[in-house]
């Protein structure tokens, strides 16, 4: 399928340092081809791609696009817009502050990959290319043309390093492969920002932030609402390449500069956008996913204080979530709880956080004198001890407290000030059902954790955490009581996890020891939590949130992966660590840490920290 | 050559002659090895004292005994009359700040943040005030930042406040380390080879900086290899050879002492311990140095 591009990608005997495209089409024709291909792609999505509605998403209609066609439409639209912007069309130039060419390439790639994936999926699932309607062919040809045109756009080729004539064949091959790699990298490299951002009035900047946040909400809602595997894969392809295109065009930098300038507005806006999510749903099906993602993300964010800020590798973090959940469950008035207590929610939440914090101190006090790997081992052990202890306190192997493997079940729904979380409510014409209620409550907890993270990170104690992470001996010599400071981080992280756990217990009706394992197919568990932090970006707020959303959605949506899910997950993590060790949303500090030689700025603004 | 120092020795704000640091009979043994043996050293306020000695003489071991990184096997170290606690963060809180032989900045923090970390012991805001952000917190943060900026102006790095420490040139990293130590408002500053790897101009600038620090009323104890630097700078110099204090006095006395010359040129003097012992001491020191570092390396 991609052979055509592959052959074009391996140039032979190029003059050094030249500015040519990857494909031998004259640049002005290529640019036209890319833009025209984009327009044709848009048009093709309004045609029928197949004759039968057996392929999910029903691509048989003329006149309006459906399912995967919408994603191709977005790819085509991006290609066209970036293409027109590169021609300098008035009113579109703002789209590409850092040069349009690599953005065109990536958006063309987005359209191409999604369209060809669709076409191949149709052919494979329905049995042959005969099932394609003309629209499908048009889309395939149009996206291919756009991609070829985009790839012909010139870029500065890196000069090949001279190779050693004594090299063996394998070394020569490696040398060539490395050069090819750097050529491809250069082909998609972003241009330099030409003009500094035009000064906008504050309200316009805020409007841009709101637009970006709404776009984020739409993308997230779409991703959560994808109904079948093909659509989710198409979504991942389009969203991934589309985001990359926007980043290469310089849009992401612009927006992040604005969000850094208006941090509070961005935060409020982000939470309003997140709170709007249940209102965009007609039933409770996706709010369920939403609330689980939120629990996962909140706990990951709490872990980020421990791992990302203070640098303490905690492999048993999920146990604190369990402590909070069990505590809240026991005082919830559940019939299987050994205590006949029914605390109001605020009491249960505070108690959950407090008990988790006590456990944090109990675990932390002896172990935080250890450094590095030892701490990881001890926390790993604690995670298992918690689970097994809970499993054994069933009345036969130990005291009858936790009901063993049955867990504490039938946890009643929350009722805060007469608002019953188990009931459907109608707010301003929107129906909000059980999981949506909990989603909103959980969002409040997330907000608390975000505020705690931000405020503690940017303070005397936060600086002490980072100093300890950077160089413990030097930090001690600066008068920082390392043990105390680490214990605070550990206990704070535990308390936040306990807080999240107290909501989780009510969401899931039942708490069982199986929910709190080290590694398990369903997040949250310690391994996934750590992965979410690392994947998203250590030491950032948005990183773990994005990481957790991806780590929850991908296994939940790609059912066909089945048993290979953990394998795929491990592979993805290895690749990520190889190519982007700072995570998807890097802390500026981390980015500098890992890419010293790169073009990263040497000045770290306060907002970026 | 030394006129320079003597004229300046009357530091404002400090009463000269009062002992700031008083180490008595400090002995440090690693197993059967004695790296530092029965060393007495006093540093008076308004004084710059140098500590020299050939490699493996136990200078850094002695330094580490002063800063609470090691607990001396025998003897005691008093700071302004009270015995120094045995943990390095408490020593800093008591008023003894130090720099490191091999620069140990927080390399991924900004210049300003590095100095703010140095302020840690002089501020009290804990987690709760950070979370609640009351007026007291804001005031303290503002004061800390002002004080840190004063120090950055003092060492001439104010313009680079938002640069990452790792991106500073070598000489400026050394200066930043001194500023970070000064941020803890010490009464005594311990400098471990502050001019290592510097060119003559930078060494000269460091000299000026140390004089300026002394003039702020802070006593300074310097370990150094650079003889010219030490004899220029210090009011008193102590020579450590094979863990023992050989001689102590002003520059002229020390420079004129033939045992010092012998120790540096490698000639044997009376009762000189064998070479084997020197290497042994070195090895033990390296081990002791490596041990705490290994733990941080994670």
Automatic annotation (TrEMBL), chain A:
A GO-annotated cellular component: plasma membrane
Pfam families: BPD_transp_2 (PF02653)
Region (Disordered): 1-22
Compartments in which it is found: Cell membrane
InterPro entries in the cross-refs: ABC_transp_permease, LivM-like
Bilayer topology term: Multi-pass membrane protein
Protein name from the UniProt record: Branched-chain amino acid ABC transporter permease
Species in which this protein is naturally found: Streptomyces apricus
From TrEMBL, chain B:
GO MF entry, a single one: L-isoleucine transmembrane transporter activity
Top-rank taxon, per record: Bacteria
Segments forming domain ABC transporter: 21-267
Presence of the UniProt keyword ATP-binding in the record: yes
Region (Disordered): 271-298
InterPro entries: AAA+_ATPase, ABC_AA/LPS_Transport, ABC_transporter-like_ATP-bd, BCA_ABC_TP_C, P-loop_NTPase
UniProt cross-references to Gene3D superfamilies, sorted A to Z: P-loop containing nucleotide triphosphate hydrolases
GO biological process, one term: D-alanine transmembrane transport
Keywords, comma-separated and alphabetical: ATP-binding, Nucleotide-binding, Transport
GO cellular component terms given for this protein: plasma membrane
Pfam families assigned to the protein according to its UniProt record, in alphabetical order: ABC_tran (PF00005), BCA_ABC_TP_C (PF12399)
Protein name: ABC transporter ATP-binding protein
UniProt source species: Streptomyces apricus
Lineage, top ranks: Bacteria, Bacillati, Actinomycetota, Actinomycetes, Kitasatosporales
């Amino acid at each position: 399928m991609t052979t055509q591009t592959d052959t074009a990608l391996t140039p032979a005997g190029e003059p050094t340092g030249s500015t040519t495209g990857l494909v031998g089409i004259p640049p002005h024709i290529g640019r036209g081809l890319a833009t025209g291909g984009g327009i044709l792609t848009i048009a093709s999505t309004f045609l029928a791609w197949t004759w039968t509605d057996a392929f999910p998403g029903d691509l048989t209609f003329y006149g309006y696009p459906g399912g995967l066609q919408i994603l191709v439409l977005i790819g085509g639209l991006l290609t066209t817009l970036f293409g027109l912007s590169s021609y300098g069309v008035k009113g579109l130039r703002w789209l590409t502050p850092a040069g349009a060419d690599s953005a065109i390439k990536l958006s063309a790639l987005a359209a191409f990959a999604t369209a060809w994936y669709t076409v191949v999926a149709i052919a494979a699932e329905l049995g042959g290319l005969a099932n394609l309607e003309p629209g499908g062919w048009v889309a395939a040809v149009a996206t291919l043309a756009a991609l070829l045109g985009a790839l012909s756009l010139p870029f500065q080729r890196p000069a090949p390093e001279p190779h050693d004539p004594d090299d063996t064949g394998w070394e020569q091959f490696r040398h060539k492969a490395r050069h090819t790699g750097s050529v491809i990298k250069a082909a998609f490299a972003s241009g330099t920002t030409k003009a500094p951002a035009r000064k906008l009035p504050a309200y316009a900047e805020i409007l841009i932030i709101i637009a970006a946040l709404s776009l984020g909400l739409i993308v997230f809602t779409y991703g959560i609402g994808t109904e079948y595997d093909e659509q989710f894969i198409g979504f991942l392809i389009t969203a991934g390449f589309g985001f990359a295109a926007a980043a290469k065009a310089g849009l992401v930098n612009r927006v992040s500069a604005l969000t850094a300038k208006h941090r509070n507005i961005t935060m409020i806006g982000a939470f309003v956008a997140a709170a709007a999510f249940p209102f965009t749903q007609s039933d409770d099906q996706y709010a369920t996913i939403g609330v689980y993602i939120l629990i996962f993300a909140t706990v990951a964010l709490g872990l980020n204080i421990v791992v990302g800020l203070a640098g303490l590798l905690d492999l048993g973090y999920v146990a604190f979530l369990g402590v909070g959940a069990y505590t809240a469950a026991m005082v919830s008035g559940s019939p299987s709880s050994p205590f006949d207590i029914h605390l109001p929610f605020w009491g249960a939440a505070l108690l959950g956080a407090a008990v988790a914090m006590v456990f944090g101190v109990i675990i932390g006090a002896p172990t935080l004198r250890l450094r590095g790997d030892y701490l990881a081992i001890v926390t790993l052990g604690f995670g298992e001890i918690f689970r097994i202890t809970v499993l054994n306190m069933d009345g036969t192997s130990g005291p009858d407290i936790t009901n063993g493997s049955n867990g504490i079940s039938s946890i009643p729904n929350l009722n805060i000030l007469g608002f019953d979380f188990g009931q459907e409510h109608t707010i301003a014409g929107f129906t909000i059902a059980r999981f949506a209620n909990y989603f909103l409550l959980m969002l409040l907890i997330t907000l608390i954790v975000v505020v705690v993270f931000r405020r503690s990170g940017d303070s005397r104690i936060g600086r002490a955490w980072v100093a300890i992470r950077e160089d413990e001996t030097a930090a001690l010599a600066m008068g920082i009581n390392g043990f105390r400071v680490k214990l605070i981080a550990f206990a704070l992280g535990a308390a936040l996890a306990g807080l999240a756990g107290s909501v989780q217990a009510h969401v899931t009706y039942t708490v069982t020891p199986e929910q709190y394992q080290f590694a398990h197919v369903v997040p949250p568990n310690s391994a996934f939590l750590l992965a979410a932090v690392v994947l998203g970006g250590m030491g950032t707020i948005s990183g773990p949130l994005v990481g957790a959303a991806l780590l929850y959605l991908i296994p939940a949506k790609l059912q066909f992966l089945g048993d290979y899910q953990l394998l795929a997950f491990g592979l993805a993590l290895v690749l990520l660590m190889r190519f982007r060790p700072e995570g998807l949303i890097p802390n500026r500090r981390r980015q500098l840490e890992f890419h010293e030689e790169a073009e990263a700025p040497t000045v770290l603004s306060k907002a970026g920290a | 050559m030394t006129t320079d120092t003597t004229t300046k020795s009357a530091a404002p704000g400090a009463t000269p002659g009062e002992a700031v640091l008083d180490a008595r009979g400090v002995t440090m043994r690693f197993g059967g090895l004695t790296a530092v043996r029965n060393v007495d050293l006093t540093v008076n306020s308004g004084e710059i004292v140098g500590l020299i000695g050939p490699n493996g003489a136990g200078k850094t071991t002695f330094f580490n005994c002063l800063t609470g990184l090691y607990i001396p096997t025998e003897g005691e170290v008093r700071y302004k009359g009270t015995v120094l606690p045995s943990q390095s963060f408490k020593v800093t809180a008591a008023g003894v700040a130090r720099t490191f032989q091999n620069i140990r900045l927080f390399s991924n923090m900004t210049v300003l943040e590095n100095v703010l970390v140095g302020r840690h012991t002089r501020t009290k805001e804990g987690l709760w005030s950070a979370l609640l952000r009351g007026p007291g917190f804001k005031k303290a943060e503002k004061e800390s930042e002002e004080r840190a900026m004063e120090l950055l102006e003092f060492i001439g790095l104010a313009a680079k406040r938002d640069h990452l420490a790792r991106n500073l040139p070598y000489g400026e990293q050394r200066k930043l380390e001194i500023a970070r130590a000064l941020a803890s408002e010490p009464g005594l500053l311990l400098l471990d080879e502050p001019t290592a790897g510097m060119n003559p101009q930078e060494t000269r600038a460091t000299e000026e900086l140390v004089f300026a620090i002394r003039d702020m009323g802070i006593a300074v104890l310097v370990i150094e290899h650079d003889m010219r630097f030490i004899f220029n700078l210090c009011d008193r110099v102590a020579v450590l050879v094979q863990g023992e204090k050989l001689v102590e006095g002003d520059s002229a006395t020390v420079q004129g002492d033939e045992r010092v010359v012998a120790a540096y040129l490698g000639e044997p003097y009376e009762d000189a311990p064998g070479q084997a012992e020197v290497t042994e001491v070195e090895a033990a020191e390296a081990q002791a140095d490596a041990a705490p570092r290994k733990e941080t390396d994670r």
